[in-house]
Amino acid sequence: MNCDRTSKYLKISREIISQIESGALQPGHKIYSENELINEFNISNTTARKILSYVENEGWAKKIKGKGTFVINRSKEMHLNRILGSFDAMKESFRDNLIKEGLTPKDILLEKIILNDGISINVNNKNHVIEGKVLKLHRLRYANDVLMKDETRYISMAVCPDIHLIETDDSLIHLYEKKYRIRLSDIQRKISTKVVHPKEEGNFFDNTTPMAVFVLSGVALGDRSETIEIEHSLYRGDKYSFTINTKPDLC
Amino acid sequence: MNCDRTSKYLKISREIISQIESGALQPGHKIYSENELINEFNISNTTARKILSYVENEGWAKKIKGKGTFVINRSKEMHLNRILGSFDAMKESFRDNLIKEGLTPKDILLEKIILNDGISINVNNKNHVIEGKVLKLHRLRYANDVLMKDETRYISMAVCPDIHLIETDDSLIHLYEKKYRIRLSDIQRKISTKVVHPKEEGNFFDNTTPMAVFVLSGVALGDRSETIEIEHSLYRGDKYSFTINTKPDLC
Which residues of chain B neighbour A87 with C-beta distances below 8 Å? Predict the structure, then answer.
């Protein structure tokens, strides 16, 4: 009986690990909760807890208090893949994604200023404008001390008054939704690519040879089509890829 | 009366042109048909035809027989933007897109061979495999004599028998759907970026300085999850951008 239970917990643990190895469960994704394990495999909560500990202790996942257990990025090259086109995925915080993947985020704030005369950007051949005061936030975003993203965001202070007084460590998108009660209706991103050269002016990456970067520019619109945020960021091309899954429209 | 009609046709023509200039109507997009103009503006078919001719003669659009009138790409730098994430847009043919934008497509077939032992690719951390015979098609795809895309596609000959005997000038996706009656259920694309150096082996672009290219790899799956096609292509980074529009899931 005891022997049976042991092998069951090991069997299930190894099944989960093999799902991670095959890529069916990806870095940053949540693995089963205790309750899901209990229901799915008809096991006790002790066994469920043992399974989650086993997978974590073997270095495949990380438990984050109150959030769940997440698959860790074990690739030594720290290659990150991000999904585009899914509204929920687009809303995920850069920082939370790294934590869920077992990486250590760090931000350096380069600039936080208020621009008085608005700003505009062209995405998808359309001009998007934020009028009036705009908070400009320029941050260098690191994972395990490697600069992953050179991020500049411009936030409408008409839509988000006093946002310059708030600590912006957390997800800005969550801030818009929770503090300012804004319903995002549309997130548009344009991806270009360019070469950044070592020691080029304005290049914060530490590349020693010419490196390709992704240039993401985009807008987030509210439900009255107002422009809430304009973003212009560089992602290092040797660490990032983006995935788009397209299925026929069923609606 | 006559004067009124003249100003009406000019007014509507200019309205359409200003929509093109503002980007609301984009290169490759269809502008109003004669019938749409008649219904929308309550005008005669003579006036509608005059409007379409005016917009075309001013160099903003091009009539393609039996298909409609399409907005031309007037940018001298020939910058092309492609939309990702929309199933219909993903299915559009590379060649047709260029023609609709007023550009001249040309293909050079570098390789057309049958591989006997299948092929596999990793997209979105999942391995996709085509077993058995595979048609490899390596084409250089030009617009106005500029190499835009270095395209390699691998097609399952179990799913598409005798495809090597068919002229593949037309859209492959249309070929799968029309000749082979395959229903595509999922198109997955991964976008990476890298630098290609002048005269590097296997670099067919004519760049004289290091250039960033988009690397698109992807799979097209049928409705029984069978892998129909694997693609691995380079898009020149100085001419292309990709756009993704994300709205909340309403289904």
Answer: 246-249
| Nearest CB to A87 within list B86, B240, B248 | B248
Nearest chain A alpha carbon to B213: A193
Mean pLDDT of A44-50: 91
Does an H or E element contain A67, and which?
none
The alpha carbon of residue A156 is apart from the nearest alpha carbon of chain B, in Å, by 20
pLDDT at A1: 44
Secondary structure E strands in chain B: 61-64, 68-71, 80-84, 105-115, 119-123, 126-130, 134-143, 146-156, 184-196, 211-222, 227-236, 240-246
Residue A247 has what pLDDT? Answer: 80
Indicate the residue of B23, B123, B211 with minimum beta-carbon distance to A195.
Answer: B211
Full DSSP string of B34-67: HHHHHHHHT--HHHHHHHHHHHHHTTSEEEETTT
ipTM score of complex: 0.79
B204-237 pLDDT, tens digit per residue, is 999 999 999 999 999 999 988 899 999 999 999 9
- Is A249 a member of any domain? no
Residue of B nearest to A84 (CA): B244
Where a domain ends, among B22, B40, B71?
B71
CA of A218 vs chain B CAs: smallest distance (Å): 9
pLDDT in tens, B72-112: 877 667 788 888 877 777 778 888 889 888 899 999 999 99
Q: What is the CATH classification number for the domain harbouring A28?
A: 1.10.10.10
Residue A241 Cα, gap to closest chain B Cα (Å): 5
